[in-house]
Structure of NADP-dependent oxidoreductase:
Amino acid sequence: MTDTALTVQQTARPTGFPTPDHFRFAESPVPEPAPGTALVENLYWSVDPYHREMMDEHFELNAPLEGRTLGRIVATRDPVALPEGEIVFHRQGWRTHAVVRPEEVRRLPHHDGVPLSAYLSVLGGTGLTAYVGLTRIARLREGDDLFVSAAAGGVGTATGRFARLLGAGRLIGSAGTPEKVRYLTERVGYDEAFDYHSGPVADLLAEAAPTGIDVFVDNVGGEHLGAAVGALRERGRVVRIGTVGQYNTPEAPPVLFNHADVVEKSLRIEGFLVSNHRDVQEELYEFAVPRLLSGALALDETVVVGFERIVEAFLLMLRGGNTGKILVRAADRPHG
Ligand SMILES: NC(=O)c1ccc[n+]([C@@H]2O[C@H](COP(=O)([O-])OP(=O)(O)OC[C@H]3O[C@@H](n4cnc5c(N)ncnc54)[C@H](OP(=O)(O)O)[C@@H]3O)[C@@H](O)[C@H]2O)c1
C-alpha cells in the first residue's frame, strides 16, 4: 500500500461552468485509524450533479470534498464493526483514503455475481432515485406513457429500464447527442428519443408523443418542464428530480408554462430528495438484484479509470460526456 494519500479540494467558487482551476489535489501521509475507527482505501467514487450545487456555497474551500464512495477496510481499530477486508459504502469521497467510524459506513450486502460498481449506480443513490421517482412519486400504473429528460444519464437510464420492467407504456427520452439518442432506443428500451438541441423541446416532444404523456420524469427543468406540462394528459404527473439544466447557467430565463393546464388537467407536480427515502433501499435490492443476475436489467455506466482523473470525470459529466452513471475507479482495481 502507498504511504501517500490524495484529497481533492475546491479552491474557489465558480460562476457558470467550473474548470480544473477550481480544484487542487493535496498530498498527505495516509492517515492512521484511531481506536474505534478504520482506514478505508477507496475503490470507486461517484461524481454527481449535486456536487456542482455544493460548489456554490456548501463545500468548504481548501478542505477535502465529500461524495459517495466504495472502499475496502485495510486497517481497523474496531474489528467487530469494521472488519478488515470488508467493502463499505461511505461519504468521504474525493480522496484515496478515509478514516471512518462504524456509524459512517454501510456494509454492502453480498450478492454473488453483482459487480461492485452497481452499488454506486443502479443499486445506489442513482437507482434509488429512479425507483422512488417511479414507484412513490409518479405512482406508475401499467401502461402509463412516460417522458424522461436527461434520459441517457444515470437516473435517466435507470428510470427507463425500471419503467419498462414495471409495465410502463411508451417511453420517450431526450438527451444531448445523436449517439445518446441511439443508445436510448437501441440499448435501454426507449421507444422514441430526441436530441433536445435539434429544435424547441415542445415541438420535438409533440412529434415523439403526438397523443401526449401520463408522466414526466424531470432531471433538467427549464424548457423541458414547460414542454412536458403542455403534453401531459389529464391526471398527469411531473416527478421533479433535478434541475441540471440550470446548475451552470444561473442567469437562465425562468420556466414558462401554462399555469391553467395544471388546474384544467388536474396535474400533480411533486419533487423529492432521495435522502428522505432510504427506507426503500431493501425493496430496490429485491426488485433489481434478481433482474441484474438474470440479465433482465443491464448496467449503464461510464467508468473513468484513475483517481487522478476524478475532476476531469466530474467536469465531463456536467457537459454531458457520460452515458449512464459516471463513476471513477481506482487504477489498480480490476474491473468488477
Ligand atoms: N432528487 C434527488 O434526490 C436526486 C438524486 C440524484 C440525482 N438527482 C438529479 O437528477 C439529475 C440527473 O442526475 P444524474 O446523477 O443521473 O446525472 P447524469 O444525468 O448522469 O449527468 C448529468 C447529465 O445532464 C445532462 N445535462 C447537462 N446540462 C444539461 C442541460 N443544460 N440541459 C439538458 N441536459 C443537460 C447531460 O446529458 P445530455 O448530454 O443529455 O445533455 C449530463 O450527462 C440531476 O438533475 C441531479 O441533480 C436528484
In short: The chain has a mean pLDDT of 96. Residues 48-50, 125-126, 129, 150, 152-156, 175-177, 180, 219-220, 241-245, 272-274, 317, 320, 322, 325-326 surround NAP (CB under 6 Å).
